[in-house]
TrEMBL record:
The keyword Nucleotide-binding applies. SUPFAM superfamilies: P-loop containing nucleoside triphosphate hydrolases. This is ATP-binding protein. It comes from Thiothrix fructosivorans. Keywords: ATP-binding, Nucleotide-binding. InterPro entries: AAA+_ATPase, AAA_14, DUF4143, P-loop_NTPase. Pfam families: AAA_14, DUF4143. GO terms for molecular function: ATP binding. Coiled coil: none annotated. Residues 31-160 form the AAA+ ATPase domain.
Length: 425
């Protein structure tokens, strides 16, 4: 095993730098903490590591940088004991490095059982700056909360944001330029359906569909079926399709249970809860609870579900026409979720799509078409009730094209097109 580690280390160090697309996320290269990156598969975690490595190579000897991808088939199967050969093999190659700082990048580390014990030990005993990535929030968070508590900084990684999408396509962001706005709006129409997985950019619709399907298959088999030993794969696939077709709607496990039971599926409510939890762990789905001052009340209310990328929604959409309202809503959710892990919906007499507590707090409704007075009144009344409940003086209504500022009952409501909203914060 030591010889294999040495070969993989040397091959990467001798290879030319990887071509990297710049992302907006700022990750420290020198810290006293272990840096943990978590997110859905193929969202760009590996290329974030490559970017950090390229950054380091401008000031650090490449021999002081180690990168390993634990999805490399040559490293399967690998045990906790096998990991001991990693740094020993490296120091056998470069004995003088024992006294120098070494940068160690461990990609998809969650594939190794009890990996956190090894990472904790070398962090505490060796002069290493550690970076780890994983595609499971539960595995990483559980291990971090126990063995690595206080030793790590965790960063979530998502597919490309709209701002990053524009940068990839070299589209200037100048909201004061009619020329720039035209290009931005055209790009938004593509991004709305295609989402932010970089490998789909510029591809034909057929290739995009195949890519999204391959990603989902990878998540289903590698992150769910293999990891959790799922037997009812038909139910899992059906649940994914159901979730992607019902983005932004309230999900009731009781209702799902009765539907599946009526269709002849052998399923329990506990299984449905587990499968939905697994999809969240793999960063495929997110659930949004209702906002209440009582945690107990929050837990007993139904939750809304959203997808990690609009491409999955497009792939599994069951209607013949695009569901623009849900595509818009999902993009706004992802925009808010990148900023905060605490995203809620509000509902009393009226409903508001999103409430994000914090500094500043945000209250946001999404409505594609507000040309009819009844629709605009419904959205405004919901935001007014939400502002009174939360004590906010301002709220936002995200729509397709209208720009405006309304003053109602002493409150300020900003109406903004979705393409612009995604670039303002």
């Amino acid at each position: 095993m030591q010889a294999l580690f040495q070969r993989l280390i040397t091959d990467f160090q001798d290879a030319p730098p990887k071509q990297v697309i710049a992302r907006e996320q700022v990750i420290p290269v020198d810290s006293r903490k272990i840096i943990s990156l978590i997110g859905v598969r193929r969202c760009g975690k590996t290329y974030l590591l490559y970017g950090l490595i390229n950054q380091l190579r401008s000031s650090v000897n490449p021999r002081n940088i180690i990168y390993l991808n634990f999805e490399d088939d040559r490293l399967h199967p690998l045990t906790l004991q096998d990991l001991d050969s990693l740094m020993e093999g490296y120091y056998a190659l470069y004995p003088d490095k024992r006294t120098e700082k070494v940068y160690l990048f461990l990609d998809e580390i969650q594939n190794i059982p009890e990996w956190e014990r090894y990472v904790r030990r070398i962090h505490d005993t060796l002069n290493v700056q550690l970076f780890v990535t994983g595609s499971s929030s539960r595995l990483l968070s559980q291990e971090i909360a126990t063995s690595l508590r206080g030793r790590t900084l965790t960063y979530e990684v998502f597919p490309f944001s709209f701002r990053e999408y524009l940068a990839y396509h070299q589209i200037e962001i100048n909201l004061h330029s009619s020329h720039s706005r035209s290009y931005i709006q055209h790009a938004f129409n593509n991004y709305l359906h295609q989402g932010g997985f970089a490998e789909t950019f510029g591809e034909t619709p057929d290739i995009q569909q195949r890519t999204w399907r391959d990603y989902l298959d990878l998540i289903i088999y590698r992150d769910l079926i293999e990891r959790y030993d799922i037997k009812n794969t038909t139910l899992l696939r059906h649940l994914i399709r159901y979730a992607m077709s019902n983005i932004g709607t309230l999900i009731s496990v009781n209702k799902l249970f009765n539907e599946y039971k009526g269709l002849g599926h052998k399923v329990s409510k506990e299984t449905l809860y587990q499968y939905l939890g697994y999809l969240e762990d793999a960063y495929t789905l997110f659930n949004v609870p209702i906002f209440r001052n009582s945690v107990r009340e929050e837990q007993h209310q139904p939750r809304k579900i959203y997808a990690v990328d609009n491409g999955f929604k497009t792939l599994l959409h069951t209607s013949l026409s695009p569901d623009y309202s849900k595509l818009y809503e999902n993009l706004v959710f992802l925009h808010l979720r990148r900023q905060s892990r605490e995203v809620y919906y509000y509902k009393q007499t009226q409903e508001v799509d999103f409430y994000v507590p914090g500094k500043p707090s945000q209250l946001v409704n999404v409505s594609v078409d507000i040309r009819t007075p009844a629709t605009l009144e419904r959205e405004i009344n919901g935001l007014l009730e939400g502002m009174r409940y939360t004590g906010l003086e301002e709220a936002t209504l995200v729509t397709q094209e209208r720009e405006d500022v309304l003053r109602v009952d002493g409150k300020r409501i900003t109406i903004v097109p979705a393409w612009q909203y995604l670039l303002l914060q």
